[in-house]
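Continuing the batch. This is chain 6 of the set; chains 1 through 5 are on the previous pages. Same settings as before, nothing changed between runs. Recording input and output for traceability.
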Amino acid sequence: MIFKTPTTYFITSGDSEGFTLLNAFDGALMDAGIGNTNLVRMSSICPPHTKEVFSVNLPHGALVPVAYASITSDQPGQVIAAGVAIAFPEDEDHAGLIMEYSAKDSREVVEAKVRKMAEEGMKMRGKKVREIKSAATEHTVKEFGAAFAAVVLWD
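Output for chain 6:
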């Protein structure tokens, strides 16, 4: 088994310009503090009893489970944004729900939408929401830009 059930999480975001769209994406990962790891994209469940931390010294090259939203653009002047939200149920023995969203829009619009998505997802599960945590970032493209937001799970 590669992964254990994570016990901690943190929310992060970053944005960047780059030489190409891929370089911009890589720069956004660096800005978010997770650029020297191997991201393993996961579906959107935060295990019960997972504790929030504000940073983790992730080993370079580590396989890191992450739920993320990203967007890139090569349209100068375009505003792009990415956001994530976690809805936590009232019953702490149940999992939290992570939602991700990105758009050609402002940080405020993207963050409001992703928070609503998380709330609606918990309703679909028949759970009342205790708390929602979120983060978003925006970037105004100069040449090649990226915006990235993530929930990182770790042991």
